[in-house]
Amino acid sequence: MRIVVCIKQIFDPETIKISRSQQAIDDRGARKIMNPPDRWALDAALRFKEADPSIEVIAMSLGEPEVEDVLREALALGCDRAILLSDAAIVKARTAGLAQIIAAAIKRLRNVQLVMTGHMALDTGSGTLGPRLAIELGDWPVLLNVDQLRLEGGHITGLQNADEKYYDSSYPLPAVATVLQTPQHPRYPHGAEIINAYRVRNVEVWSSLALGVDPTTLPAPTTGRQLRLPPARQMGFIVEGSPQEAAQTLVAMLRARRVI
């Protein structure tokens, strides 16, 4: 059985700054990490592999060559293979085009029974990849926002979160699942495995030509117009003096501004 985990490289939100003068995001000093929700999906897939060693877990990502870093991290964590979808046309794809490219790669692998990803991408706030993949793969069933995943008798089972409630759901394989954060902390890679991921293991690179994808048929990407920031927040002030003096000062200030 093959499980494909779709992972994304994003800027660490804690290292991103906003330039008000340029009205733009300043990512010059930002570092890149694996999308945290995708890490939970990867951890869930590796737990399946621990329970059944015959399961093959394949990490897949899309983008520039630097995305190899998160794929090598996935190899260090225990994935059997890592595949990077990358060429000049692929890196420009957005939204629906991404799903078409990833679905083409999954079909090329064959015998994939389960596709897993995080419930959302933290850099865009979008959670559409899972449903889009399910459609592109031939209307596979999809478990959205799922926790406590289990593989039972050719079915994928778990608790789906919807409308602030949890529902016990089960669908036949093949299927797609978008995974929520779980109480278990995701595993850390062993130091020796990190070294092996760079020195011994390989990241396969597939182009649109290898996938049989015609870039001219991909949906046009959405384009951002302009980042508009609200005015800088005005800092407050402290009224000094005794309670009576502070109250008189405050009333005088409110009257001066015609608030009262």
Written description of the protein model:
The chain is α/β, with parallel strands linked by helices and 260 residues long. The protein has helices spanning 36-51, 68-77, 96-109, 129-136, 191-199, 208-211, 243-256, and strands at residues 2-6, 9-11, 17-19, 24-26, 32-34, 56-62, 81-85, 112-118, 142-152, 155-162, 165-172, 175-179, 204-206. It has a single domain, classed as Rossmann fold (3-Layer(aba) Sandwich). Helix content is 29%, strand content 27%. A 9-stranded mixed sheet has the order 11-10-9-12-8-1-6-7-13, sandwiched between helices. The chain has a two-stranded antiparallel sheet with strand order 2-5. Helix 2 packs across helix 5 and helix 3 (96-109) packs across helix 4. The radius of gyration is 24 Å and the shape is elongated. It starts with a strand and ends with a helix.
The CATH superfamily is identified as HUPs
Helix coverage percent? 25-40%
Q: What is the CATH class? A: Alpha Beta
Contiguous runs where pLDDT drops below 50 for at least 5 residues: none
Count of DSSP strands:
13
Secondary structure category: alpha/beta
Strand order of the largest sheet: 11-10-9-12-8-1-6-7-13
Percent strand: 25-35%
Mean pLDDT: 88
Give the count of structural domains: 1
Computed over alpha carbons, the radius of gyration is: 24 Å
Number of helices: 7
CATH architecture: 3-Layer(aba) Sandwich
